[in-house]
Every structure is written in structure tokens, then in C-alpha cells.
């Protein structure tokens, strides 16, 4: 791979004697390490030994790559001060956890399990409350139980949580009643209020992102290991669902069946830790380079770089330029990486990105999150899958049925129709079924609250209902009933014709007497 032999760029970060990140001195930077003195890491590690012993790009280097969707801060020195502080903060996630998730995603890529990824479009600092986090976990756990039991697949659970505070925007400015101000770019960047003062980007918010992520992750870890995720509390996860809907009764029937199955297992002497806790991982879009680069660290055990701001990080549709700063930073870290692919993405684009981010084709390393829109998925997705899989690659294929289906309602609210979301998911399954590839997961913008942001679904929300509880800071999310309903729909598609392939009971040949 040519990259590994390329000279170091001035200002890049490399490892010091103790493995601490150092910034290369420009005078030595252009001298490649002599081959004889280079360590020869084992094959899978080679891809991550970024540019001849350099471990990850410096902020200075990234800034030369014309990074997209970055805030224009009024005070550059203040940014440097914040970045310095972030660098001294402890990691939010550990390298071993990221490796574990990569291993689980490798199973997804192989068609042995399914990824459920979901959470807010934009987390907010005000949303860091026990109730809000608990509601979100409840809906994700209930969905994963539906998928596991009705769909009969192991489910890898990843929240859009504990770091999802920055938003790329279609337009730099927003105009209301003749007043034009900078767009809101998430709590990580500026304020939501439509005032000049609020919309000025403030780098100190990056420290708030760190604190909010740490608090959310701490609570999440406590919830998922401290008894809350115990399968025996399966009934309590629907405590906050809105009763009126048939989908809740459906969930309750399923919960009763699971309880009976568990009682049977316990009676047989099978009682296992996996009934009491769940593995749950954090994820967000790695958008703000100041934050993401500052949170990138050399793991002391492997001596390789990891982004320690979240287990799984993804590159958005607007920042996936092949030679852009986001790809450059993320290709240097070991975490599992997602890449959004919108309706204009071609197989060639996907392949080029995969080659850049995952030259060694490591299982579970790369996830393509396709978001083509209900009207285009059946036409555009096949070519992308065909070209990527023809190369021998097996990425995780995930459907984001949200971002290609956004529209403005007659009353001005940005919304999405439940029927179109389901239609894109059906298109995704249809295409994969036809091509024989594995529809590996779904990526959903949702909330555990009873909001009115997407129309349709079991409660038949109309555009007129949107104003009742439209609470999102950015895109419209499925509310908890809509989310649960979607889980049943996905479970049906998963079961369809696939159960023989993944259910080990079906593969068992009984002994004849
Ligand atoms: O979440 C995704 C994007 O940030 C969002 O869809 C952009 O919305 P906009 O088109 O209103 O800027
Ligand atoms: C910005 C997002 O999506 P996309 O990059 O696909 O537009 C998102 O997932 O919030
Ligand atoms: Mn969004």
C-alpha cells in the first residue's frame, strides 16, 4: 500500500518512545523511517499504522484538507485552549470495547446477527436527564427484544447516544420573518434560540459535549448492567408506551411468550448472564474535527490509535469526500466505522471509500448505512451492493430509512411519513433478498418520548398533529409507539424465508430411534 511508504506530513502526530502522541517536528517530518528500523506489525495492523509509523493526523494537517461542515469560530485561540483541555480528559470508551463491537459487527456482516442502531437526530444538553436516557433505552431494548424473539436473530444494540451533539446542515443560514442568522449546528456548536448571540459558535461547548457524553454513558452503562436490562423486566419496558395502540398489546403478548420460554429454560437449569444484562454501545457522527481529533488516543496495549469519544463513529453523507479530512482522520483509527451513502452514491464511490478506510478488509470494520429514499432505493441500491460485493468485500449493510424521506409538511414542519420509512425498509430487504446479500441492520432516528414529529403509524398522526409535541432539535424522530411498530415490521421481514438459515434448531438433525 503506497500510503504506508509516503513521507510524513509536517505537523502529523506520531508515537513517542512511551507511546504518547507527539507532534512531529517539521524538520524531521519529511524523512521516512528507514525500512530497517521500522517495526513490522502483523498483517491486520499494517493498515492502521498510518503513514509509516505516524499514528493519526494532527489537527493542523486535517485543516489543510478543506474540512466540510466545520463551525467558523470567532476566536481561534479559544479553540486551541479547548482542544488542549479535551486532550487531557480521560477516554469515554476503551479500545477493548471498540474491538469487541468490531467483532460483533463481523458477525452481522456474515449474516449471523442484526444491527439495531437508533436514537436522537440531535442529542441536547437539556436532554441529559435520567428520565430521557431511560426512555430511550427502554424503547431500544423493547425493539431489540422484538427483533430477537420475533425475528430470531441475535441483535447488536448501538445507540445514537452519548456524543450525537453536532449537525451537518444543508444551508449555512436560516431565515425567519426576513431575519437571516447562522443555522443551528447542534448543541456542540451553537445555541438553538433564533437570536444572533445564540447562533455564534462557541468552542467551550465542546467541553460540554464531553461532560454530557460522559454522564449519558455512565448512566447507560449502569442501566444496561445494573438490572434494568434484565429480561425478567421485559414487561416494565413498555411502561411508558401509549396504551391505545394495538402494537402495545402485540408487545405484551410477545413479552408473555418470552416469560414462559424463560421459565422453561430456568426449569431446565439454563439460567445465564445474558438474560440479565445486555451489551450496548455508543455511536455518533464524527463531524467536529477539533473534538474528534482531540479524543483520538494511542491505546497503551496495542499502541494503535482509537477514537475514544464513542464505540462506533460514522462519516455523514455530506463529509464523505474520499480525500477529505473526515475520511483522513477516521482511516487512522481502529474503531468500527460507518459511512452514510445517499441516493447519488455509486458502487465505485463505495468501493473507493472502503479501500481507503479498510484496505485490509478487516471483518466488521466498515458499515455502509444506505439512505436512498423510498422512491430510489430499489433502483439505486442494487448497483452499489453488486459492485462492492463483486470485489469480494463483505461490509455490514444497514438501512437508514429516515434521511432520504424528509419533507416539509404544509404547515411548515419538517417531517417524515411512517409509510415511506417502512417502504424504504421493504425496498432494502427486497434488494438484498434478490441479490443474496445480508440486510444487516437498521439505523433509526427515534425517541423514547411520545412526540408528534413523524406522520402516520399506529396512531395515525396527521400533519395537523405535528404542532402538539414537536420537540426535536433537528430532524423528526419516530416516537416510542412508531418505533415499536417498526420493530415488528422489520422482524417480519427478517423471519421471511431466512429463519432456516440462522436458527440453529432448524439445522439440527434429530437422532432416529
Ligand atoms: O441529521 C441530518 C442532517 O443534519 C439534517 O437532516 C440536516 O437538515 P437540514 O437539511 O435541515 O439542514
Ligand atoms: C446527518 C445525518 O445523516 P446524513 O449524513 O445521512 O444526512 C444523521 O444521521 O444525522
Ligand atoms: Mn438527522
TrEMBL record:
It is an enzyme of class 2 (transferase). GO terms for biological process: amino acid biosynthetic process; aromatic amino acid family biosynthetic process; chorismate biosynthetic process. Pathway: Metabolic intermediate biosynthesis; chorismate biosynthesis; chorismate from D-erythrose 4-phosphate and phosphoenolpyruvate: step 1/7. Its cofactor is Mn(2+); Co(2+); Cd(2+). GO terms for molecular function: 3-deoxy-7-phosphoheptulonate synthase activity. The keyword Manganese applies. Its EC number is 2.5.1.54. Keywords: Amino-acid biosynthesis, Aromatic amino acid biosynthesis, Cadmium, Cobalt, Manganese, Transferase. The keyword Nucleus does not apply. Phosphoenolpyruvate binds at residues 160, 317-318, 340, 371. It catalyses: D-erythrose 4-phosphate + phosphoenolpyruvate + H2O = 7-phospho-2-dehydro-3-deoxy-D-arabino-heptonate + phosphate. SUPFAM superfamilies: Aldolase. Binds 1 divalent cation per subunit. The enzyme is active with manganese, cobalt or cadmium ions. This is Phospho-2-dehydro-3-deoxyheptonate aldolase. It comes from Enemella evansiae.
